[in-house]
Structures are given as C-alpha cells and as structure tokens.
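Q: Here's a chain of 425 amino acids. Please give me its 3D structure as tokens.
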Amino acid sequence: MPSSKRRISYYYDSDVGTSYYAPNHPMKPHRLSMTHSLVLSYRLHESLEVFRPRKSSASELTQFHAEDYVNFLSKITPNTQHEHLQQMQKFNLGEDCPIFDGLFDFCKIYTGGSIDGAVRINHGISDIAINWSGGLHHAKKSEASGFCYINDIVLATLELLKYHARVVYIDIDIHHGDGVEEAFYLTDRVMTVSFHKFGDLFFPGTGDIGDIGLNDGKYYSVNVPLHDGMDDHNFVDIFNTTMQKVMEMYQPGAIILQCGADSLAADRLGCFNLTLEGHASCVAFMKSFNVPLLVLGGGGYIKSNVARCWANETATLLGKILDENIPEHEFYYEYYSDASYKLKVQQKSPIENLNSRTYLQDIKRCVLENLSQLRIAPSVQMQEIPPEAYLPELDELELIVEEKVSGIGNKSSENPIEFYDKERY
C-alpha cells in the first residue's frame, strides 16, 4: 500500500500536556502540548485521523497491574500521601515517581491512547497509530519506576495479542525497556528488542547482551547494549541489521515502536549523539515493512527537542519531509530559539564515541547468532477472542459530534491548541 494512502490515527489530549510532576523534575508532560502544537503548525493534522483518547478503566489497567497498586494510584493525592508512607515505599512512589494532582487521570489518558490505537489496528481501521503520550516502559506490575506509573505498552501489547499470534516491541529510548521485557520474558508470543545505553550504573541497570529470555521466551528478548557517544551512522547500522533479522525470523503480525527522544544528542539525561534524522530513520525503516504499527513516545528531557523529534517522526510516518524552518505559531514558538528556530538538535560539542568498531561488530555478531537460534516463527492455537476494549459500531460513529477547529489558534475554540476529528473513533 502506498505510504500516502496509509490510514494513520493520532491521539492527543490537552489534559496530559498540563500535568506537572514536581518542581525540578526532569519529566515535563508540557512537551506533549509543544509536540501537538508543532504538528498543527506544520499542518500534519490534515493528513491524520486525530482523536482524543478515551480514559482507560481500572479494570483494563489490572489486565497487567496488581489490583492493590491500581487502587492505591486511584485514591492517593498530594494531600494524603504523608498518611500512607509504607504503601508509598511498597509501590516505589516518591522522588522519581511523585504523587501529583490528577495523577490517575494522567495515567488513564496516556494508557487509553495506546490501547485505543491497538484496537484500531486489530480491527483494520488504522494501519499506523500514534500516541506520543504513551511509551512509559519502566512501570512494573506492582510498582512505579523511572517516571512511569502504568505500563501502557504492556497493556497495548496484550490487546494486540488478541488478534495477532506474534508482536514485536522495539525500544530506541536511551534507557533499557525493562518493564516491557520483564512482562514478556517467559513467552515467545512477544519479542522485545531494546537499543540502549548500558553500564556505568546507568538506569535501570538491566539489558545486557546475555539477557535473552527464559523458558518459552528464550531468544525472544533481544538487547543491544551501547556505550556513550553513539552516532547516527553506527546506531542506524546496528538497528537496521538487527531489525532486518528480527522481521525475517519472527514475522510479527504487529509492531510497537517506542521512540524515546532521550537518545537524541544534548538530552538532559542522555549521552548519545543522535540527530533528528538518525532517530527518524529507525521509524522509517520499521514503517517500510508494511506491518501494522503502533508508535509511542517515551523519554526525552529537553522539551523543544522532544517536540521537534516527534513532530518530525509524525511527518516520517506520513511520508512527508518538513521544512527546516519551524513555522511561526502561537504559544510555543519562542522555545525553538535554542536552535535558531530550526528543526534540528543544537549540540554544543559531541560526546566522545566509546563504541569501538570491534565492540559493535561483536554485539551484532552475538545478536544475530541468538536470532539464528529461532527455527520457526511460533504459532498459537486458535481460540475464542477475549473481550476487548470498547469499539463503537459503524452507525454509532456517525453520531459522535465532531470538534474540528478551522485553522490554527482559532480564538473561537475553547482550546485553540486542540484539533480533533472526533472525540473517539
């Protein structure tokens, strides 16, 4: 199918962008408002089906997460947290994962976008679904971790598995996708592939080359541990080589791609030298396989660069090339003065590349050898499809009120930054 004809759904809710973790906390959900504003400024929304995600229910969240953990998240507030210090510690809530106003709604919205995208893919309504607010890959079954509370990726994967025998999860965040790998470490129905910084006590400290899965999941966890200073040429080479072999051997029915932007150069918590072009080339490569694709956000701690990255990768999925000059627009234009209002990452000086040619060759050889152990793509016995997330009937679609905003920054709109085709599907 030609790329210009692909049906691409895009999820955004302004309530996520106004969430606030804590003073001086590196995670800034405001970057999502900036990303969406840039998508509108480049008029990419005109080629997308734009939706406000449905809030996922507590029962959906407990498809993976422990009920007591979800229940605690639903009730805890900044004003009551001091009364529950033991449970706060039990669920790893606090400094990295603070309690803030609207936390549970924040989780339900970003998770709802990922699950909704998976449902649309399952029903063949969308070929590609984008949820930049999702991709929170560190959350565990019974605890928060690494700024992540609910693991929307695991929940979206479980949704895809209702229709697809095999799903591949790919992670290009600078941090290892530990929460997703852990969830599927013992199964062959999900292959997790993570490209990340490893060593020097770098968070989360997992994802070594020898971590390949156990039992039925042996060889279905793929880790590509990298050192400081990774550049475009080497990153794209090892990514393409690995993913070509994964797609050949595993033959997934659907792909989830986590596009954490902290692997970009100059990130506040990162240590790679990737440009927007290098990062986006991974997205373009996975799109080229013409397999249903759910694209998610993740890390990224320079707000202007995160917005540049994800707006550019929205364009990549649409088969469009953006002008290097960022269009003037209301609200956030001045943030892009950090790189002279250009669509590029401004890096003062590159970090020394500690990935030697020999090291990268050894990593590639080891990864390819492990993948060669897969004799045949695993199948699954036919069975009744489990209940799934809500999807309206076609006649119901016609009754949903449209909330289109004509033009950008329309003052007559309640929120000029928003643009929705429909409230939901």
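Q: Can you summarize the key feature?
A: The longest strand covers residues 190-197.
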